[in-house]
Structure formats: structure tokens, C-alpha cells
Amino acid sequence: MIMNRSAAPDSHPLSSSLSGESTSHLLRHIRQEYLLCRPPSQIKNLAEFLGTDTTSSSTNVVVSTATTRYPVETLSERIQQLHEASVGYPRSEGEKEYQPPTQYRIAFVKYIIKQLDTVLGSCESAKRDKDDGAEDDNEPSALWYESLESLSGMEAEQTEPFYRFYELPENFGMVKIFENERAIVSEGTTGLLTWEASIELVRWFSLGENNQAIKERKWVLELGCGCGLLATAALKIFPHILKYFATDGHWSALRKCKINLEENFGALKTDVIQVEKVDWQNEQDGIKFGKLVRTATESEELGPGVLLGADIVFDTSLIPALVDLMKKFLESHKDSIALIACTVRNEETLRVLKTCLESHSVEFKEIYSWGDKNGIIYKITRRIIS
Ligand SMILES: C[S@@+](CC[C@H](N)C(=O)[O-])C[C@H]1O[C@@H](n2cnc3c(N)ncnc32)[C@H](O)[C@@H]1O
């Protein structure tokens, strides 16, 4: 642990771990958050990495430890490492140039410069005291000022839609998703940004043998796909999938989903990926859903499928229609399954879901939970009548 002072009693507690595993772990985490465009003040460990973590009341921030936390040389090295892991990426040829939108990068650089102004000001005065006032030409924050200048030039030249990069588990690479930056509801849907339940479902795929559930089946139908993180990630993690129906009830979500699939896979191979409007409450869409499921299940190469849904259980009035579709799906083949990731905002919503599933004679099992039961993944199968 980076702050463990007892780990290196003879040296500065942090300098010994500068090139160690914990530092690279911290940097990796910061880079992931940077690619997700997390507001820099909310990036856990960023202030700790720079030694600017503060004792603060919300309005009165006190940088109390800047001069004692790092020797100036260590801090300079850290400032450079952070630059290389964020706006200064790629560090070498061959590394892919994943970078967040320019506007976010500018906000990030400005935040770091502000932090450095405080911490370097305090370190510099300590160093000057020690060096008898000699000036140091090697200003470690110069890199950041240079980046700010070039980014400001880029910003003036372009208008850019907002996107985030999601790093997939293991070595499945990166997914780029155009989405809304903050607005939870826009164009009549909540689907224009990525919700935690999708991210958790993707994480679940990589845990232990969980991926077997999908590996054993060749096609997927997703309900409420929103802007398409789950579809994109699943298709990257499971290249054996022969058919993926990404469905949603809102055209704007479907448009965004299509853009994102194209961004990550090039022009859509429509024999593999099909983006379809399925409004759970619309009768015609219900008929279309039934046809899609039947055609896939009855085709020789596909057979049993997986129904996926992330954060689609949020409104009790929609649950009966949703469960009807689930039942239709599960009845199409004895080995078809549904995996539904629910964010728990309200216990009552889950109670209604469970009651409705029970009354539709399907089995459901809680197979994973995250964040102290803030979210649950259910595996839903056909009830076997013995
Ligand atoms: C909270 S978002 C989740 C989006 C995505 N699955 C995710 O996790 O990022 C809920 C999604 O359900 C869709 N939705 C809401 N009501 C629907 C309905 N009646 N029929 C079909 N989709 C619906 C919304 O358009 C939205 O994309």
C-alpha cells in the first residue's frame, strides 16, 4: 500500500515505491478514470498520487502535507509519469492513441496545473530555502502548460461529440462509446449514457467460469440496449457469437447504439448485428420480438440463446410487459437463459419483479451482486416441471 510508512523505514516512505507495483497500479487506475472522463476532483487517488491530498472542509482546502510528503525530485518524476499516463499518451510508438475528448482533456490539465501550483509553490519555497534561493530551471509543470497550449489550439479547430473509453476485463481491449456527458434523460430516453449495471455485467463475464453461460450459446438478444456498451463489449469478449440483436424502445438510443457499434467494429455486418426497435409494451413490437426469437432458435446454427438486460427494471408499471417477453424467450428453447443486471434503487421494484417472475412460472436465481447489494444479476431460466 502506497501510504504504508512502515514499509521503507530508512527512506522516504514514497520514494521507494515510485517505480514499484503500487505506483503503476495507482497510475493505471487514474488512467482508467481519465479515459472514462471522470471529473478530476472525483478521481480517487489522483491527489494522493501528487501528494496534494488535503485536509479539507468543503470550502477551505488546506494543503498541509505538500512539503513533507515527497522530496521535490520524486514529485517531478510523478508529475511526468502522470503526464505520460494521461494527456501525454501514447508514450511510445505502437501504443494506441486512446484519448478523451479535447474539452475533458483541457479540464483535466487545468485541474492538474492548479494542484501543481499549490504543491510546487510549497515545495519550491522549501527547496529554495535549502538551496539558498537558487532558481530551478527545470520546471516540472512546464509539460502541463505545453499540453494546455496545444489542446486549446485543437479545441478552437473542432467541435467534438462526447465519448468515453471503457477498458474491458482481461485483455479484450478498449471500447469507445459516444454518449451524453451528464444528462440522465435526453430525447425522451435514459439510454444515451452508460449505466453501472452494464459495466457490472461486463465485469461479471470475466469472473471465474461465468463466461461459460454465453460461450455455450451462439446468439444474444438484448433488451433496453441504450447506447450500446454491453452489446459492443459482449461482441468483443465473445467473438463466437453468431447473432446479436440489440433492441430498445427508443429510436434515439438505437441510433446511438448503431453509431457505437460502427465506431468499434466498422460498417455493421448485419448478418451478425441487428439493431431493432422493441418497445416492451408495444403489441406489434412484441410480435416482432416473438418472430426474431423463433427464427433464431429454430435455425440450425443458432439454437438456445441468451437474453441480456442491464438496468431495465426501474419502473414497476413496465415489469409485467418485460416479464412477458422474458417468458416468451425462455419458452422458445429449454436451454435458453436470461441474465438481467438490476441496479437496486428501490426494494419495492425488485419485489414486484420477483412476484411477477414467480407468477410466470420461471426460475430465477441471484448469481452476483455488487456494491453492497446496490446491484444484483439474476439468472432466469424456464421452470422444469418434474
Ligand atoms: C437505464 S437505461 C439502461 C441502458 C443500458 N442498458 C445501460 O445499462 O447502459 C434503460 C433503457 O431502457 C430503455 N427503455 C425504457 N423503457 C422502455 C420500453 N418500454 N421498451 C423498450 N426499452 C425501454 C431506455 O430507452 C433505455 O435505453
From TrEMBL:
Keyword Glycosyltransferase: no
Range of residues in the leader sequence: none
Region (Disordered): 1-20
GO molecular function: methyltransferase activity
Protein name as it appears in the record: Protein-lysine N-methyltransferase EEF2KMT
Superkingdom of this protein's organism: Eukaryota
InterPro entries: Methyltransf_16, SAM-dependent_MTases_sf
Keywords (A to Z) from UniProt: Methyltransferase, Transferase
Membrane-spanning residues: none
An annotated GO cellular component: protein-containing complex
Natural source organism: Folsomia candida (Springtail)
GO terms classed as biological process: methylation
Gene3D superfamilies per UniProt: Vaccinia Virus protein VP39
